[in-house]
Amino acid sequence: MRKHKIAEMDGVTWWVFGRDPEKSDHVIDTNEYLIVHEGEGLLLDPGGYEIFPQVAAAVSEVIEIESITHFFCSHQDPDIMSSLPLWMGLCPKAKIYMPWIWSGFIAHFGHEYVDRFVKVPDCGTTIGAQNAHHKFVLLPAHYCHSSGNFSLYDPVCKIIFSGDIGAALLPEDAETLYVEDFDNHIQYMEGFHKRWMPSNEAKNQWIEQVRQLEVTYLCPQHGGIFKGAQVTQFLDWFAELKVGSALEESKSAPNASS
Q1: What does the buried/exposed string (b/e) look like for 236-254 if buried means 16 or more CB atoms within 10 Å of the residue's CB?
Q2: Is 119 in a helix, a strand, or coil?
Q3: Is 108 left (phi over 0), alpha (psi -120 to 50) or beta?
Q4: Rg of the chain's alpha carbons, rounded to an integer?
Q5: What are 3-46's pLDDT values in tens digits?
Q6: Residue 162, Cβ density class (10 Å: 0-12 exposed, 13-18 middle, ≥19 buried)
Q7: 86, 128, 169, 182: which could form a disulfide with 132 (CB 3.0–4.6 Å)?
Q8: Residue 179 pLDDT > 80, yes or no?
Protein backbone atom coordinates (compact mmCIF):
# COMPACT_ATOMS: atom_id res chain seq x y z
CA MET A 1 0.00 0.00 0.00
CA ARG A 2 1.41 3.36 -1.02
CA LYS A 3 1.70 6.16 1.54
CA HIS A 4 2.24 9.84 0.87
CA LYS A 5 2.44 13.00 2.95
CA ILE A 6 -0.11 15.47 1.58
CA ALA A 7 0.63 18.50 3.73
CA GLU A 8 2.25 19.64 6.95
CA MET A 9 1.36 22.89 8.68
CA ASP A 10 0.97 24.27 12.20
CA GLY A 11 1.98 20.98 13.78
CA VAL A 12 -0.53 18.97 11.72
CA THR A 13 0.43 16.40 9.09
CA TRP A 14 -1.92 14.76 6.58
CA TRP A 15 -1.12 11.33 5.14
CA VAL A 16 -2.89 9.24 2.51
CA PHE A 17 -2.66 5.48 2.05
CA GLY A 18 -3.95 3.83 -1.11
CA ARG A 19 -3.41 2.16 -4.51
CA ASP A 20 -2.66 -1.15 -2.80
CA PRO A 21 -1.20 -3.68 -5.30
CA GLU A 22 -1.98 -6.55 -2.89
CA LYS A 23 -5.71 -5.76 -2.76
CA SER A 24 -8.08 -8.40 -4.11
CA ASP A 25 -9.59 -7.55 -7.49
CA HIS A 26 -12.99 -8.17 -5.92
CA VAL A 27 -12.57 -5.35 -3.39
CA ILE A 28 -13.08 -1.72 -4.42
CA ASP A 29 -9.97 0.42 -4.01
CA THR A 30 -10.11 2.99 -1.20
CA ASN A 31 -8.00 5.81 0.21
CA GLU A 32 -7.42 6.01 3.94
CA TYR A 33 -6.32 9.34 5.44
CA LEU A 34 -4.43 9.91 8.68
CA ILE A 35 -4.10 13.25 10.44
CA VAL A 36 -1.29 13.46 13.00
CA HIS A 37 -1.51 16.31 15.52
CA GLU A 38 0.63 16.67 18.63
CA GLY A 39 1.57 13.01 18.54
CA GLU A 40 -2.00 11.74 18.26
CA GLY A 41 -3.75 10.29 15.22
CA LEU A 42 -7.16 10.83 13.64
CA LEU A 43 -7.93 8.14 11.05
CA LEU A 44 -10.58 8.99 8.44
CA ASP A 45 -12.78 6.19 7.05
CA PRO A 46 -10.35 3.47 8.18
CA GLY A 47 -11.52 0.99 5.56
CA GLY A 48 -12.98 -2.47 5.26
CA TYR A 49 -12.19 -5.70 7.06
CA GLU A 50 -10.45 -7.17 3.99
CA ILE A 51 -7.75 -4.49 3.82
CA PHE A 52 -7.19 -3.99 7.55
CA PRO A 53 -3.74 -5.70 7.63
CA GLN A 54 -2.37 -3.53 4.83
CA VAL A 55 -3.79 -0.29 6.27
CA ALA A 56 -2.61 -1.05 9.79
CA ALA A 57 0.89 -1.89 8.56
CA ALA A 58 1.10 1.32 6.51
CA VAL A 59 -0.24 3.50 9.33
CA SER A 60 2.20 1.96 11.81
CA GLU A 61 5.06 3.27 9.67
CA VAL A 62 3.88 6.80 10.48
CA ILE A 63 2.55 6.59 14.03
CA GLU A 64 2.19 4.02 16.80
CA ILE A 65 -1.24 2.43 16.46
CA GLU A 66 -1.97 3.05 20.15
CA SER A 67 -1.56 6.78 19.47
CA ILE A 68 -4.69 6.89 17.31
CA THR A 69 -7.20 8.58 19.57
CA HIS A 70 -9.98 9.42 17.10
CA PHE A 71 -11.67 7.77 14.15
CA PHE A 72 -14.08 9.44 11.76
CA CYS A 73 -16.61 7.39 9.78
CA SER A 74 -18.33 9.58 7.21
CA HIS A 75 -21.22 7.14 6.75
CA GLN A 76 -22.20 3.49 7.11
CA ASP A 77 -20.80 1.64 4.09
CA PRO A 78 -18.67 -1.48 4.77
CA ASP A 79 -15.72 -0.10 2.80
CA ILE A 80 -15.77 2.86 5.18
CA MET A 81 -15.31 1.04 8.45
CA SER A 82 -16.21 -2.65 8.64
CA SER A 83 -12.68 -2.99 10.09
CA LEU A 84 -13.80 -1.00 13.13
CA PRO A 85 -13.76 -3.90 15.66
CA LEU A 86 -10.17 -4.70 14.71
CA TRP A 87 -9.11 -1.09 15.20
CA MET A 88 -10.94 -0.87 18.51
CA GLY A 89 -8.96 -3.82 19.80
CA LEU A 90 -5.72 -1.98 19.04
CA CYS A 91 -6.85 1.49 20.12
CA PRO A 92 -8.67 0.95 23.43
CA LYS A 93 -9.08 4.65 24.23
CA ALA A 94 -10.12 5.92 20.80
CA LYS A 95 -13.41 7.66 20.11
CA ILE A 96 -15.35 7.08 16.89
CA TYR A 97 -17.20 10.01 15.33
CA MET A 98 -20.12 9.01 13.09
CA PRO A 99 -23.51 10.32 11.92
CA TRP A 100 -26.05 9.78 14.67
CA ILE A 101 -28.51 8.24 12.22
CA TRP A 102 -26.15 5.35 11.49
CA SER A 103 -24.94 4.57 15.01
CA GLY A 104 -27.43 1.73 15.53
CA PHE A 105 -26.43 0.18 12.21
CA ILE A 106 -22.70 0.61 12.74
CA ALA A 107 -23.14 -1.12 16.10
CA HIS A 108 -23.65 -4.33 14.09
CA PHE A 109 -19.91 -4.20 13.34
CA GLY A 110 -19.12 -4.25 17.08
CA HIS A 111 -21.80 -3.35 19.63
CA GLU A 112 -19.35 -3.80 22.51
CA TYR A 113 -17.71 -0.52 21.49
CA VAL A 114 -20.81 1.71 21.44
CA ASP A 115 -19.69 3.52 24.60
CA ARG A 116 -16.97 5.07 22.45
CA PHE A 117 -19.31 6.24 19.70
CA VAL A 118 -19.64 10.02 19.29
CA LYS A 119 -22.96 10.56 17.50
CA VAL A 120 -22.66 13.63 15.30
CA PRO A 121 -25.86 15.70 14.97
CA ASP A 122 -27.15 16.61 11.51
CA CYS A 123 -25.73 20.13 11.79
CA GLY A 124 -22.18 18.79 12.30
CA THR A 125 -19.60 19.38 15.01
CA THR A 126 -15.85 19.76 15.57
CA ILE A 127 -13.18 17.27 16.57
CA GLY A 128 -10.65 18.61 19.05
CA ALA A 129 -10.37 19.68 22.66
CA GLN A 130 -12.55 22.60 23.72
CA ASN A 131 -9.64 25.03 23.92
CA ALA A 132 -7.55 23.45 21.15
CA HIS A 133 -6.00 25.81 18.63
CA HIS A 134 -6.48 23.35 15.80
CA LYS A 135 -9.96 21.88 15.32
CA PHE A 136 -11.39 19.78 12.52
CA VAL A 137 -14.88 20.63 11.30
CA LEU A 138 -17.46 18.01 10.35
CA LEU A 139 -19.58 19.50 7.58
CA PRO A 140 -23.02 18.16 6.62
CA ALA A 141 -23.00 16.24 3.33
CA HIS A 142 -26.35 14.50 3.69
CA TYR A 143 -27.60 12.49 0.69
CA CYS A 144 -24.17 12.73 -0.93
CA HIS A 145 -24.59 9.81 -1.18
CA SER A 146 -25.75 8.60 2.23
CA SER A 147 -28.80 9.99 4.04
CA GLY A 148 -26.49 10.67 6.98
CA ASN A 149 -23.08 11.78 5.73
CA PHE A 150 -20.33 14.26 6.62
CA SER A 151 -17.18 15.75 5.16
CA LEU A 152 -14.23 16.82 7.31
CA TYR A 153 -12.55 20.20 6.87
CA ASP A 154 -9.18 21.33 8.20
CA PRO A 155 -9.25 25.17 8.14
CA VAL A 156 -5.50 25.52 8.74
CA CYS A 157 -4.18 23.04 6.19
CA LYS A 158 -7.15 23.95 3.95
CA ILE A 159 -7.96 20.33 3.21
CA ILE A 160 -11.39 18.77 2.90
CA PHE A 161 -11.94 15.04 3.17
CA SER A 162 -15.00 14.58 0.97
CA GLY A 163 -15.69 10.85 1.29
CA ASP A 164 -17.55 9.56 -1.77
CA ILE A 165 -17.91 13.06 -3.21
CA GLY A 166 -15.24 13.35 -5.89
CA ALA A 167 -14.72 9.59 -5.95
CA ALA A 168 -13.41 7.91 -9.10
CA LEU A 169 -13.20 4.25 -10.09
CA LEU A 170 -9.74 4.16 -11.60
CA PRO A 171 -8.24 1.38 -13.75
CA GLU A 172 -6.39 -1.32 -11.84
CA ASP A 173 -3.05 -0.19 -13.27
CA ALA A 174 -3.49 3.44 -12.10
CA GLU A 175 -0.75 4.39 -9.66
CA THR A 176 -1.00 8.12 -9.04
CA LEU A 177 -2.57 9.38 -5.83
CA TYR A 178 -3.40 12.74 -7.44
CA VAL A 179 -5.55 13.80 -10.38
CA GLU A 180 -3.14 14.62 -13.19
CA ASP A 181 -5.52 15.54 -16.03
CA PHE A 182 -8.94 16.70 -14.87
CA ASP A 183 -10.68 16.36 -18.24
CA ASN A 184 -9.40 12.82 -18.68
CA HIS A 185 -10.33 12.01 -15.08
CA ILE A 186 -14.02 12.75 -15.67
CA GLN A 187 -14.58 9.39 -17.35
CA TYR A 188 -13.69 7.62 -14.12
CA MET A 189 -16.02 9.60 -11.86
CA GLU A 190 -19.00 10.61 -14.01
CA GLY A 191 -20.91 7.32 -13.88
CA PHE A 192 -20.23 6.93 -10.18
CA HIS A 193 -21.64 10.36 -9.33
CA LYS A 194 -24.66 10.05 -11.61
CA ARG A 195 -25.71 6.80 -9.96
CA TRP A 196 -24.56 7.10 -6.35
CA MET A 197 -25.60 10.71 -5.74
CA PRO A 198 -29.41 10.72 -5.52
CA SER A 199 -30.27 14.40 -5.05
CA ASN A 200 -29.35 17.41 -7.17
CA GLU A 201 -30.58 19.74 -4.42
CA ALA A 202 -28.40 18.04 -1.82
CA LYS A 203 -25.23 18.04 -3.91
CA ASN A 204 -25.71 21.70 -4.85
CA GLN A 205 -26.17 22.61 -1.18
CA TRP A 206 -22.88 20.84 -0.38
CA ILE A 207 -21.14 22.63 -3.25
CA GLU A 208 -22.27 26.06 -2.06
CA GLN A 209 -21.08 25.25 1.45
CA VAL A 210 -17.63 24.24 0.20
CA ARG A 211 -17.33 27.29 -2.08
CA GLN A 212 -17.33 29.43 1.07
CA LEU A 213 -14.17 27.70 2.31
CA GLU A 214 -10.53 27.95 1.35
CA VAL A 215 -9.65 24.52 -0.04
CA THR A 216 -6.23 23.57 -1.38
CA TYR A 217 -6.83 19.81 -1.46
CA LEU A 218 -10.08 17.90 -1.92
CA CYS A 219 -9.52 14.31 -0.82
CA PRO A 220 -12.08 11.64 -1.79
CA GLN A 221 -12.26 8.10 -0.47
CA HIS A 222 -11.81 6.59 -3.95
CA GLY A 223 -9.59 7.73 -6.79
CA GLY A 224 -7.29 10.74 -7.04
CA ILE A 225 -6.84 13.83 -4.87
CA PHE A 226 -7.78 17.21 -6.37
CA LYS A 227 -5.22 19.97 -5.85
CA GLY A 228 -5.28 23.74 -6.31
CA ALA A 229 -7.36 24.92 -9.27
CA GLN A 230 -8.68 21.37 -9.74
CA VAL A 231 -10.85 21.86 -6.64
CA THR A 232 -12.83 24.61 -8.37
CA GLN A 233 -12.87 22.56 -11.58
CA PHE A 234 -14.47 19.70 -9.70
CA LEU A 235 -17.04 21.90 -7.96
CA ASP A 236 -18.01 23.51 -11.29
CA TRP A 237 -18.28 20.11 -12.99
CA PHE A 238 -20.28 18.62 -10.14
CA ALA A 239 -22.65 21.59 -10.09
CA GLU A 240 -23.57 20.99 -13.75
CA LEU A 241 -23.96 17.23 -13.38
CA LYS A 242 -27.46 15.79 -13.15
CA VAL A 243 -27.47 12.98 -10.60
CA GLY A 244 -29.93 10.25 -9.63
CA SER A 245 -29.58 8.34 -12.92
CA ALA A 246 -31.29 5.21 -11.58
CA LEU A 247 -34.60 7.09 -11.66
CA GLU A 248 -34.33 7.40 -15.43
CA GLU A 249 -33.26 3.78 -15.82
CA SER A 250 -36.20 2.57 -13.76
CA LYS A 251 -38.65 4.08 -16.25
CA SER A 252 -37.78 1.28 -18.66
CA ALA A 253 -38.45 -1.46 -16.07
CA PRO A 254 -41.05 -4.14 -16.93
CA ASN A 255 -44.63 -3.20 -16.07
CA ALA A 256 -45.52 -5.25 -13.00
CA SER A 257 -49.23 -4.77 -13.59
CA SER A 258 -49.22 -6.36 -17.04
Answers
A1: ebbeebebbbeeeeeeeee
A2: strand
A3: alpha
A4: 18
A5: 999 999 999 999 999 987 777 778 888 999 999 998 999 999 99
A6: buried
A7: 128
A8: yes
Per-residue confidence band for 56, with pLDDT thresholds at 50, 70 and 90: very high
Instruction: Give residue-wise pLDDT tens across range 57-68.
Output: 999 999 999 999
Is the backbone peptide bond immediately before 37 cis, with ω within 30 degrees of 0?
no
The DSSP bridge pattern shows strands 125-127 and 117-120 to be unpaired
Q: Is the pLDDT of residue 258 over 80?
A: no
Interior/surface letters 65-87, b for 16+ CB within 10 angstroms, e for the rest: eeebbbbbbbbbbebbbbbbebb
C-alpha closest to that of 2 among 146, 176, 165, 130 = 176
> What is the model's pTM?
0.93
The gap from C-alpha 161 to its chain's centroid, in whole angstroms, comes to: 6
CB neighbour list of residue 206: distance below 8 Å, 6 or more residues apart: 139, 140, 141, 144, 151, 165
